[in-house]
User: Fold this.
Amino acid sequence: MVNQKYIKEIKKVGIRIDHDMAFDGKSKGNKHLFRVVKLAKYLALKSKADISIVECGAWLHDTALPSGNDYDYKKNKKIVEKLLYSIDISKKDKEFISECVASHEGTKIPKTLEAKIVHDADVLEKTGILGIIRHTWKLTNSKKIKPEKISNKDVKIIINHIKWRGNKLQTLFAKKIKKYLTVKITKPKIKEIISIASKMANRGIITEKIAITISKNLNSEQAQLLKEQLNLDFLKKIDK
Assistant:
């Protein structure tokens, strides 16, 4: 159990890295970490996991991004272990938090319930239309797609990535949320979303502002789900 004093320290570290260091500061001001933390805490309560470990892991889950990517389990673990070194929490808590960060991208099966929850919370951010926007943003700012010319291959890569991540969900409640957030959408509309999102991302615009623009080009059901994803309003509906 990590007390609130150290959770606040860890939160500051996570936000600083996400806003000031990842992608050369291009994502400054985005709310991804805040949504993942809230989702992770919700799943922790439902699964009776250690909510303090889950919260710390969620704040730190993207701390390997400044190194280039966060897909390498061992590299992720070393990075977060170094970040936690000077924080006065137990060795066991550090190990549990490190596992949350190391396995969050699904490249290795999470070893603990808390790590499964952080993984699933991050996957839910890569679900539905918000998932398309977020992964497009990441690929654009990693120079892996060209915003001026989005190809069918680019679309396929993004769709397959979202499917791959969704298929790796670990917890029952996360699977329930994914089912709710999944919306019917045609490939031409997906390509249109990717094209708009990539061009805006290339201009340094954050996910949330891109989503507002894209919502104007969606039908009412799609726009409503995207709004619920951004505000996490769907959690109230899931509980009913």
Notes: The CA atoms of residues 26 and 214 lie 19 Å apart. The chain has a mean pLDDT of 96.
